Amino acid sequence: MMRFLFCFLLSISTSVTVIAADAVNFASHVSPILNKYCVGCHNADDSEGGLRLDDHAALMAGGETGLAVTAGAAGSSRMLLMITGKLDPAMPPDDEPGPNVDDIERIAAWIDQGAVGPDGDMPIKTTLRTPRIEPDQNTARPITSIAVAADGGLHAIARFASVQITRTDGTTVSQIDGLPGKVNSLQFSRDAKHILVASGVTGAYGRAALYRVDDGSLESELLGHRDVLYSAVFSPDGKWVATAGYDRVIKLWNRDTAAVTHELSGHNGAIYDLAFSHDSKVLVSASADATIKVWNVERGTRLDTLSQGEGEMLAVDFTVDGKYIVACGADNRLRVWRLASIDAAKINPLVVTRFVDESPLVGFAFTAGGKDVAVLSQSGNVKLLDTRSWKQVASLDPLPDTGTDIAYHAATHSMLIPMMNGEIVSRALPRRNKKNQSASETLQPIYMDLDALAVRNESDGKTLPRGAEVSGVISAAGEVDVYSWHANAGEVWAIDVDKLGNSPIDPIVSILDVDDQPVLRTRLHAVRESYFTFRGKDSKQSNDFRVFNWQDMNLGDYFYSSGEVSRLWKHPRGPDSGFDTYPGEGQRWTYFGTSGTTHALGEPGYVVRPLDAHQTPIANGLPVFDVYYENDDDPMRIAGNASRLLFTAPQDGTFKVRVTDTRGEGGEAFQYRLAVRAATPSFRPSITQLKGPIFKGTGREFIVRVDRIDGFDGPVTFTLTGLPKSIVSNSPIVLEAGQRSAAGTLWVPETISDDDAADWSGEVNIDVVATADILGRHVERSAGQLKKISLADGPNVIPSLHPLDHDVADDKTWVLQVRRGDTVSARVRLKRKSGFENEISFGKEDAGRNATQGVYVDNIGLNGLLILAGSNEREFFLTADPTSVPGRRSFFLNANTNGGVTSHPIIVEVLP
């Protein structure tokens, strides 16, 4: 090698003299050599040693060690000396191929000729110095893209370097040949007179071109990308064309002038797909960097980055109504965001995440009207989802080969899918019945009013009358007691098992059919997979559920793990916190009769949805769990470790109740009481007392709660009576359906009249009544009294709530509106007592008091909502989850001083 280099250096002068007869051009002679051997490590994104060789100006500027090229002096140019090995370190490295003698002579001649740069911009179209490999003539040419005109009358099919445009009967309209490489996207103009083709040469340049459909003639060419294009799209208004590809840059072109109006950068990976909003104001891009970015078209600015993806994002579009952004990719999931950022930067909230297949999702297409979307996976599976619920409704026949694209054909109500084997398959879509399952197919619950329970002992026999109470004993380890009774289809029975006295029994109860087989309660289909992170959970904890993929989960989702089903109640405050599960306080509730259990770190968990009785689960790669009628500990945690089970008879017949000890223990002391009774949905209300006197100018909080009995899940209204005239209260307080508690406040103005003061001369007690509608009946229960209420002066602070842009009187009940999925701002202000400058906290995840379920104080981190020492005001943010129920509800804040003093309540109105 050294002998060759020595000889070569001796011959440089004579060789250059020979070559010098012809001028060496940087663009056509030198740049291709550098691109082949050097640019991989010396480019705009990876300039090793600070040296770039992909641009003439950057090359002449040199790198960290100085100039690389000395114009007119090849023998003293560092770049040439390193290429020839005369100067260390030799380049390219020993394990990489380098330029041959002719290449080096050409570079040397160019330097000696003055290292002149290109005349104007470097040409976009460049030729790769790679060997040509001829394809096997017997190999089918893959179809890489497909497009259907808006009226369905024309199809465009792309193969390598060509596009064929055909009518629906298969006759050819035009043929476009001679394209530079693989065609990655096609799109017809709205009038179907033009077609936009995205292609290019990998590693060289990208090319978008506009062709006439009728004759395939080229109308305009859009060049400017430094690598192959993956997507080129028209704007709906016809003014713009957007292009993007491997070079990670989006270019917005004026369609009429073919001039670049904006260049959008920010992605850190190849850009695979683009889509315009229906009003052409917004552009979205899907990238290999696992993000979707949202751009303002007119200004060319970024509005938001949707970063929930966990793999390359391969396809993106807007729903037909233009309200949502939809994307899918290599993490096997389809995601939906509500479009909020149109004219200004704003968070576009994630609405839905759906696990669709066990392989990457490569594309999707909406049906006419946008009611359904078909999703194509790399495995060849095609799944159909309903865009109202985003639930999977059908699985189409799998493909015989890998699909490359998908398009909807309205005339045949089918999806057209091109494949790598050169064929196009059509998958007809099912015509779904929009009617709900008929009442005759749905088991309607029947609630009964039976005689008093018959009292039995275990020795009286194992057959029970309809409604009975039995005293028994598990007298030996492993013993199982079984009792039978008759039930009719739809009847709802409550099965209770309690220990008698100080019995050590921990009962577990289950329902069997006449053949001693467990009775199925429901089936739960997993729609999202997860696992416990950070640490496990005991069988009672209801907060800090840290789970993988938590960003893709929604409030109200059922979470299944190791046979237990819990429910998500409140979002984490960030990556260092976890979900609160229902009921949001105390011990966690369980659902579908399951029992609380301990969960280990890393234990699998799933978001699940119950299936209808006769519903066949659609394959999505995730399991289906059978849940039988069985319970160890009361799901509502009212009865401790006693068993509580609600049983709806699936048909007429004899059923059996099996009772034993959950640990398999037994003995004469293991006595129990079993009740088989008609379920009676009801509730038991309670209230907490005020934590001290009410300071004038502030309020005191109290909590209303209900114990829900026998499956009652409806709202409960608490009404206060006998209030002094000076008290402002948020009564009536509605405890929402499915909730355990709500918050009330009694607030008194800073100044009250003498007449109002007279109301406080004696002991003030306030009656609280709870009411609900249950099975068509109005049910009323006394919740007790708020007792011995008194007034006081001089609180440390007087908190008040105000709109963001103006002040209101401290005693005004104003309305703060927030739309579901949005975040709004307001202010909290303190009037401090002289000399009191302490920090004031309004709570952490529970900072917003009495808010609608799913409405919460946001962006507070782990420290909660604070006003720092010496400060008197701050902005806070209120977010309404997409699951929150529209309507009006009172809202206030509670400051942690003087035992807790509240602001005057305002109204938060959740808009649809």
TrEMBL record:
Keywords: Repeat, Signal, WD repeat. PROSITE patterns: WD_REPEATS_1 (PS00678), WD_REPEATS_2 (PS50082), WD_REPEATS_REGION (PS50294). Residues 38-95 form the Cytochrome C Planctomycete-type domain. One of its GO terms (molecular function) is heme binding. SUPFAM superfamilies: Cytochrome c (SSF46626), WD40 repeat-like (SSF50978). Pfam families: PSCyt1 (PF07635), WD40 (PF00400). InterPro entries: Cyt_c-like_dom_sf, Cyt_c_Planctomycete-type, WD40/YVTN_repeat-like_dom_sf, WD40_repeat_CS, WD40_repeat_dom_sf, WD40_rpt. WD repeats lie at residues 222-263, 264-305, 306-347. PANTHER family: F-BOX AND WD REPEAT DOMAIN CONTAINING 7, WD40 REPEAT PROTEIN. This is Secreted protein containing Cytochrome C, Planctomycete domain protein. It comes from Rhodopirellula maiorica SM1.
